[in-house]
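FAQ: What does a ligand-bound record look like?

Like this one, built around glycyl-adenosine-5'-phosphate:
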Amino acid sequence: MKGNFELSSLESVVSLAKRRGFVFPSSEIYGGIGACYDYGPLGVELKRNVKDAWWRSMVTLRDDVVGIDASIIMHPKVWHASGHVGNFNDPMVDCKESNNRYRADHVSVLRVEGVEGCPMIAFIDDGGKAREKAEKRFSKFASGNFPSDHIETVLLTDIPLSEFGSVVGPDASKPGTLTEPRMFNLMFETYLGPIQSEESKVYLRPETAQGIFVNFNNVIDTTRVKIPFGIAQQGKSFRNEVTTRHFTFRMCEFEQMEMEFFCKPGTDAQWYEYWKNARLQWFIDLGADPEKLRIRPHDPDELSHYSTGTSDIEYRFPFGWSELEGIACRTNYDLKQHAEHSGKKLEWKDQTSGASFTPHVIEPALGTDRAMLTFLVDAYREEEVDGNQRVVLGLHPRLAPTKVAVFPLLRKDGHPEKAQEIYRRVREVYPAAYDEAGNIGRRYRRQDEAGTPACLTVDHQTFEDDTVTLRDRDSLEQRRIKVDAILGELREQFGF
Ligand code: GAP
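The answer part, i.e. the structure of the complex:
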């Protein structure tokens, strides 16, 4: 039951996430730190469920994919071979007035086309109010001297450096405070061992993918995989992102779930199609609204030089369509690069013909935190029930942090003891919660906000006919079921 509720901003999800213990700002008692977040008691369960759902569909239920868990700090040559040391850069501009730093390719500029000396107003386009505000600032700076009906929006990166003097930065009060764009490497550096020198410099991995490529031979030598096959990995990645916005959407420390699917050259296109569809279906199977999902193929100028095709699975967030997952045809680029830099052969040998070749790769790469945010945003709704407003997270039962809540109707007459007994039995099978605080309506609301799909209530009648009430979060239907039938009924409702 999704209803017609449409979220207008992330605010209410951020507030629910804080209020109910899904997500907290990191180091909050010290005022927080950048775009770092902590997952609270409900958040950690949701994240675990998202990861388990991915692992189940990508590894457990398949014969052709195996998993690994590589270390975060790898040999620095890995990042030279992968191109991250040379290429993993963003163009940055600094504002000398506000001391803020922006990704130049994320800054938009309002200007009047072809009018020299006209002020240009820079802003970070969020698909919402930022442009409106920039227009107001434009009329202030231009003070009616320029034809505002000819205003156009261009990217800062398209403005010649000689015109930067007329650009008012996003947080500046006067023009000319933005520096020229400089390249900035996104990898976090640290040192391995006691001496801090160029030789001991290492990086925190900016993606999990390379841990897979460098283990290619290890996996072939120790398993019975046959081409085509995949190697999957989940884990933390780190990027010194400069623009971090939209809550957990873009962070400096985040998790990825990536799989490299190795196939025969020439079969890339077929596997690319297969993985695009399979990955889109994964989100839909876990309850995400298909209307808010789409696959967007990259334009040729967005493609890496080695890629023969890349598509993003995008979700329509309140701040606009945004990337959730990339599915990329990486050809044999990575294996070739590592073979060259390490001097080791990274090939597949065909047992029948004896011929060797470097496999091609299709890579579905998803951010765990971004997937979580998507499921939270997608599940969030406010609705009216019997004249009262309720907030509910309609999470798929596989994702719901708590699957079942057990309540005694009263805190007397043996209700708590019986409810505890049921709770202990249920939690052996499904993550469960016990709650006896407050009136029953409030307890239901609390579970609705936590996304708990089923609630069981013990009342007077339980002692007469050994039944409890089973309440469904979405339909709000309440029906009596036998205590002995609880696990069977839950299994029926959840599908597992
Ligand atoms: N190995 C390919 C790769 O890492 P990517 O598009 O840079 O590709 C894959 O990252 C996914 O990881 C993205 O689609 C996104 O979901 C997630 N991701 C990337 N940077 C992120 C960040 N700073 N914060 C949160 N998630 C991020």
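Follow-up question: can I read anything off the structure? Yes, for example: The chain has 14 helices and 27 strands.
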